[in-house]
Design brief:
The chain is α/β, with parallel strands linked by helices and 288 residues long. The protein has one domain: Alpha/Beta hydrolase fold, catalytic domain (Rossmann fold). The protein is built from eight helices and eight strands, in the order ααβββαβαβαβαβαβα. It has an eight-stranded mixed β-sheet, with helices on both faces. β7, α7 and β8 form a beta-alpha-beta unit.
Length: 288
């Protein structure tokens, strides 16, 4: 049997063990309630802050950015890309951090995208790039010079990491990146239940793995993950931190005590939390 410390990403584990290594819920017994809380708290955020503005960037109903601006001029916009292994969750259920972020001086924008198997993973990557360009153009049209902190969780962190090596025409449409509990080497997913809607080949997995790509966006990056994550997920984050540090300023590499793959996101609203400090490390100081 292959030990995970000899095979940090679990590439050579038997299928059942590999599936468990990449099952975030295996160490998060309350994950179903956490996902329900995403929904409840997102509706509560809109009730408190007003309905989100819809910025379409493509023909599909999922191809949109939901913008919840703060009532006062913001020092930055947190652009959040949701997880769900590219096949679940939505922008609508990603608005829950808004009240806490507004209190810290951030606008919130949540990126929606078409899910697998309707969209191939390559298409999802391009959707996120299109969403960022559309959001930046919309903010500039309002006379704002946006500081966009691009953040993603799980599969969303993978998509954010892919933006770091995207072929942009001109400067990238974001100024910093926050990677939370991401997956950056996709080869271990081949053949698992996760892969059924993705249908990855070895070549596609390699091309779509941020750990195998050289970033060309010279922006600061922070990485965080929950202490209660599987070893495979923790190893992926640590490896990505080492990889990015060869090319970019890495402002924080932070395991978050007491947090799992799902509930870590509630700390985005808490400036004193480890994740909140990661976000602060990527953001200009508020104007006095």
């Amino acid at each position: 049997m292959t030990a995970l410390h000899d095979d940090p990403f679990g590439l050579h584990l038997p299928l059942e063990q590999r599936e468990r290594a990449y099952s975030p819920s295996s160490l998060a017994p309350g994950f179903a309630e956490t996902l329900q809380r995403y929904h409840r708290d997102s509706r509560a955020a809109e009730a408190l802050c007003g309905p989100a503005e819809v910025l379409p960037y493509g023909p599909s109903p999922r191809e949109k950015v939901l913008l919840l601006p703060a009532s006062q001029p913001a020092r930055a916009t947190l652009v959040y890309v949701h997880g769900g292994y590219w096949q679940e969750l939505s922008a609508e259920d990603s608005l829950f951090p808004a009240p806490g972020l507004h209190a810290q001086g951030y606008d919130l924008a949540a990126v929606g995208y078409r899910l697998a198997p309707e969209a191939r993973l390559e298409q999802i990557v391009e959707q996120v790039a299109s969403a960022l360009l559309q959001l930046r153009a919309a903010l500039l049209a309002r006379g704002r010079v946006p500081h966009l902190v691009l953040a993603g969780s799980s599969a969303g962190a993978h998509l954010v990491a892919m933006m770091l090596s995207h072929s942009w025409e001109g400067p990238p449409p974001f100024q910093a990146a926050l990677l939370v509990s991401g997956i950056y080497e996709l080869a271990p997913l081949i053949g698992t239940y996760i892969d059924q809607p993705l249908q990855l080949t070895a070549a596609r997995a390699a091309a779509l793995s941020p750990l195998r790509r050289v970033p060309n966006c010279k922006v600061p990056v922070a990485l965080a993950w929950g202490e209660r994550e599987t070893d495979a997920f923790q190893q992926q984050s640590r490896a990505m931190a080492r990889h990015l540090a060869r090319y970019l300023p890495v402002t924080a590499v932070q395991p978050c005590a007491g947090r799992d793959h799902f509930d870590i996101l509630f700390d985005l609203s808490e400036p004193a939390s480890p994740l909140g400090r990661c976000l602060a490390s990527l953001t200009p100081e508020p104007m006095r």
